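Sat 14:20. Reprocessing the chain from the morning session after the first attempt stalled halfway. Input below, unchanged.
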Amino acid sequence: MKNLLLASSCCLVIGTTASAQNLAPVITSSIAPFTEFVGAPARSIDLTAAFADPDASSAVQFSVLLPSSTGIFNIALDGVHKSITVANFLDYVNSGRYFAPDPTTHMLASSFVHRSVPGFIVQGGEFIGTVDPSHPGNAQPIAVVTFPKIQNEPGISNKKGTIAMAKVGGDPNSATSDWFVNLQDNGGAPANLDTQNGGFTVFGHVTGGGMTTVNAIAAVPAFNFGPPFDSFPLRNYTPPAPIKLVNLVSINAITVIPPLAFTATSDNPAVASAAISGKNILVAGLQSGTAHITAKATDLDGANVSQTFTVTVAAGPARLANISTRGQVG
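Finished this time. Tokens:
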């Protein structure tokens, strides 16, 4: 794994400023009008069949320890265009490989940001911070246990705010667990990350105000301990003291989150109510009449799209009388 970091370090240099562009959600199918009966169970409609995010098939939330606080940033993952890389990254997240039991403390240890170059990138996903068994007060990095290397998927530019996979120099198809976030536009000269070594695969972008947290990571002082920790960000650290776990910029949680948030409103709530339950909209008929329901999908950058459908509420269907016949004699 150290070879991966060293090769990546040789290949990455400072680039120029640019911003990643977000694509707004789209309507994939129209919700048809329907009739509902008063008092019937609420009708459930799956909104993921009605809306989609063109550049976010899924998303994750990072929680990171900063010098005096915990920072949060979200990543929209573009599995539509970079399916291999997104599936690989989610394999690490869902299997828990960015975390590991500490052999000394037997507590769960987390990965950390091991490389930070101001104006260029912050990088993580390669090491987990554990306790040094010989010196229990000190930190000892261990390598993330990796899955097999994956096929390179270049094509999206390494712009500011994008997340991409690091690789071994001279081997385009060598990405495993190691990711980096671009602090500036590094796709073109002089970094040329879009073309060198087959191009570095961008598979998502930081959403909303998340770059505030990423920039706060980049602002943490970095120290040179020699490769692979030659630009090593450390919290509240004063050299030449030993490095402790509390000094690491630890990623203490990575959580899968929905790429879209849904809301719903009714223009006639006395006739039909509309409520969101997870990815579904629940429509209930309350009294006879007509209501127009508006469903809205909002992505993690705040862009949204909506559609409106009509619900006609009718009185409950007549019930057949329970008639019984009895045989008569005589």
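The mean pLDDT is 91.
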